[in-house]
Design goal:
The chain has 240 residues and is α/β, with parallel strands linked by helices. 44% of the residues lie in helices and 15% in strands. It has one domain: 3-Layer(aba) Sandwich (Undecaprenyl pyrophosphate synthetase), CATH 3.40.1180. The longest helix is centred in the first third of the chain and has 22 residues.
Amino acid sequence: MTPSVSENKMPVPCHIAIIMDGNGRWAKKRGLPRSAGHAAGAESFRKIANYCRTLGVKYLTVYAFSTENWKRSQEEIGGIMRLLGTYLNEAIRDMEKNRVRFRFFGDLTRLSPQLQKLCIEAQNRSKDYDVQVNFCLNYGGRDELVRAARGFAQDVKDGRYAPEDLTEDLLAGYLYSADVPDPELIIRPSGELRTSNFLLWQSAYSEYVFMDILWPDFGPEDLDRAIAEYHRRNRRFGGA
């Protein structure tokens, strides 16, 4: 059994990102509707978010709903959005106690007006808190890069920049994650070995840990194992 990060006094990454995958398969294995899997996954998120705060993780980014997830059934999409609305209502109510800052990466305009309002309220009311949770909601890495390119192109057209002014740092400022450090560790449960259009720019030097466990079963001990694996890596950033 891997000792806990706190027991080992192991330093934690500043920014951890997680692809929360496997809710549907978790439900299917138990003969339950997919909505039950999403509800169990939401509870796993609560536990992990609280554990990250306890460990001292400064940024936690989670893949909540991708631009491709709109291909799912309307029933499943509706259930996911209702769960998100319930969570945000509770988070806003308990915000002073939890002191977690909320950010949303993605195009919120496709969400219902009520959900958009909750997202904006959560961001505004938590803006002075320290620990930050970034929800990737209606998010896709390629879509983010296209939007960033369009933003820079518009600024060139408006005379703010010339094309040759573009640098990596400048382009990063057009991303949803502007001012957020890149994740050192990205975790994907569920046994799938792909990145699924998640943080394509930001993950250039992230350490990926793929784990054969479905997200609703993912607990603090699994996060400890992922962080332990992260510490076994030799991060050279292209150097010798």
